[in-house]
Amino acid sequence: MECVIGLFKTECIRTTVFHPGPYRTLAEVEYATAGWVDWYNTTRLHSTLGMMTPVEYEQAHYAALIREPQPV
Fold first, then answer.
1. Mean pLDDT of the chain
2. Which residues contact 43 (CB under 8 A, 6 or more apart)?
């Protein structure tokens, strides 16, 4: 978990990727956090997943389960 918190601080809080300037209210931090969480869970490429997004990997996983014959 500490690694994810570090990524969050580096990618969301200390940059202007998810927010154009300094945070002035808690609502701005919450909005930027929601954007980062959405990006982290759906569109980031992950080397452990074969440079796929988590969503693509999950879809491929379940598609493979459907294709495999089930034991009787």
1. 87
2. 53, 55
